[in-house]
User: Which sequence fits this backbone?
């Protein structure tokens, strides 16, 4: 999606935390149990007014996993967008009207490595968003994320060289 994302998309950041060398990524399990097997995702979150994507990345990491001590290895030059399915958008309109006004998200993607390792991860932000994490192969991360985000994850993981280019 070259250029400026449409106003109907919420500006967002997403970060892939890698072990840089072993070919694994960290996925995090959302506290929201209504997602079933698709409770896993990468840390992500919306930009606040006046915030740059790099600032949002650090804030979201502190809020979601308790540390922003990361080395940013790469940033994709353009956001990757995805649309919410109608049922998700309806739920958002009901539970979070500020987010529900958007039709999806335009995510600026980062690839990073934890400076202090996974020992620095904490889930003590209130309210907590995650309750567990696990190192997995990038392909396994795709299988765990909600289906409507899969293409965006595939694009980012491929662009970062963590998945081979080619058909899905």
Assistant:
């Amino acid at each position: 999606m070259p250029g400026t994302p449409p106003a109907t998309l919420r500006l967002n950041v997403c970060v892939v935390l890698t072990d840089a060398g072993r070919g694994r990524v960290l996925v995090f399990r959302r506290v929201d149990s209504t997602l079933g097997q698709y409770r896993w995702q990468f840390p992500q979150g919306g930009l606040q007014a006046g915030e740059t994507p790099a600032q949002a990345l650090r804030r979201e990491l502190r809020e979601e996993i308790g540390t922003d001590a990361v080395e940013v290895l790469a940033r994709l030059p353009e956001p990757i967008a995805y649309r919410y399915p109608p049922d998700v958008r309806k739920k958002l309109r009901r539970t979070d009207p500020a987010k529900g006004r958007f039709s999806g998200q335009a995510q600026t993607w980062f690839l990073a490595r934890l400076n202090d390792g996974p020992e620095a991860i904490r889930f003590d932000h209130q309210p907590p968003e995650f309750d567990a994490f696990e190192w997995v192969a990038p392909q396994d991360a795709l299988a765990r994320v909600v289906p409507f985000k899969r293409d965006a994850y595939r694009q980012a993981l491929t662009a970062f060289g963590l998945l081979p280019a080619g058909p899905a």
Remarks:
- The first helix runs from residue 53 to 65.
- The two ends are 19 Å apart (CA to CA).
- The mean pLDDT is 90.
